[in-house]
Specification:
Blueprint: H1 2-23, H2 28-38, E1 40-42, H3 43-49, H4 55-67, E2 71-76, E3 82-87, H5 89-129
Antiparallel strand pairs: 1-3, 2-3
C-alpha cells in the first residue's frame, strides 16, 4: 500500500513539473491568457500586450509554446508578412487554470493595495491634519 502511495505521489510531482515546464516562465502564461481572451492575435499585438518583453524573448517564447503544441502559428504569404497566433485545443484546456490564477492574483493584489492604502491614508492624515 505504501509503495502505491509513493508511486502516486511521484507521478503527481512529475506531472506538476511537466505542466510548469510547459507554461512556466515570465511570459508563457500571460501569452496564453491574452490569446484566450482575444482568440487570435498578431505578433505586433502580442508585443504591445506585453510591453516589458523583448523581441527576442517574445519570438523564443512563441516558438516554445508552438513546439509544446499550446499555440497555433498561421503564416500568410503576403507582403508585409502576416502571422497570427491562436490557442490549440491543448492550450484552451489551460485557460480555466490560468483564470483561477488570475483571480487569485487579483485578490492578493487587492489585499496588498488595501493595506498599503491604509498606510498611505494614515500618512496623508498626518501631513494634512498634523495628527499622530
Amino acid at each position: 500500500m505504501k509503495d502505491n502511495a509513493k508511486l502516486t505521489e511521484a507521478t503527481q510531482l512529475c506531472a506538476v513539473d511537466y505542466a510548469f515546464k510547459r507554461i512556466g516562465g515570465k511570459y508563457k502564461a500571460r501569452l496564453l491568457w491574452y490569446l484566450g481572451l482575444k482568440g487570435v492575435l498578431r505578433y505586433g499585438e502580442l508585443s504591445r500586450t506585453l510591453p516589458d518583453i523583448t523581441t527576442k524573448m517574445l519570438t523564443q517564447t512563441l516558438r516554445e509554446l508552438e513546439e509544446d503544441k499550446l499555440i497555433n502559428r498561421k503564416m500568410y504569404h503576403e507582403v508585409p508578412p502576416k502571422v497570427e497566433y491562436s490557442l490549440t485545443e491543448t492550450g484552451e484546456e489551460l485557460i480555466p487554470f490560468i483564470e483561477h490564477l488570475h483571480n487569485w492574483g487579483k485578490k492578493q493584489q487587492e489585499k496588498e493595495l488595501l493595506s498599503k492604502k491604509d498606510e498611505r491614508t494614515a500618512e496623508v492624515c498626518k501631513t494634512v491634519c498634523g495628527g499622530d
